[in-house]
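Re: that chain you flagged

S.,

Sorry for the slow reply, it's been a week of failed gels. I finally had a moment to sit down with the sequence you sent. For the record, here it is as I used it:
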Amino acid sequence: GISLETPGFLPSVHGYHHEFALVRQNRWLDNSNGLCFCDHCLKGAKAAGINAEGLRAQVVADVSSYLEGDFDMPDDMAEAVWLADTITDGEMGAFLAWRCDVVTSLVAEIREVVRDDANVAIIPSVARPSGGAWYEGSDLKALTEAAGILEACFYEGSVDRVKADAWDVKRRLRGAGTVRGILRPGFPDLQSESEVAGAVSGLRAAGIEDISFYNYGHLRQSSIDWIGAAMTQARS
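Prediction finished late last night. Pasting the structure tokens below so you have them in one place:
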């Protein structure tokens, strides 16, 4: 089978590996900058009845106005502003929902042309936690229904956060497809043998049996040893 990583619209902070700015970032600014208004997106959104040209002009004006200011928006305010934009601005909400349709249809097309005896797994997003994948056009349930397997990155800094993210992913799927898990056993995530073992146990308790680890080429030997100990413990 194959694993298809991040088929959606990468955010500004992860695009082009990676954007650089001498301005303090926040959720609203990052997400506004990360919206794609290329010719293909403008054409597709227009066909779906969305005034993407007008939305683009509005986003440009808003970001320009903010950057011309002499203040930084605190994180809690930026979170509230972004949430308000996505809910109260009809064009913004419709545009973000349309992006989910685009990504889901792409994955469905890929699944259709891959031979029947080969699995297709989707690594949906660079968002942490996984619930934020929708911004990239990655509807977790829809992608799982289209491909059959979701390979979720539980890149979190504690066992409790891994457990919480796994609970949310399973909740969103409502029984659709199969979930695999990916953990990162080293900085900035799980940084001890006990944390790696606890995260593996937590995923197994959530019904996630297939677990992999990222990224062997960048891990210390101690982290690789933690993987072995955790998997041995999980099998015992």
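What I noticed first: The chain has a mean pLDDT of 95.

Talk soon,
D.
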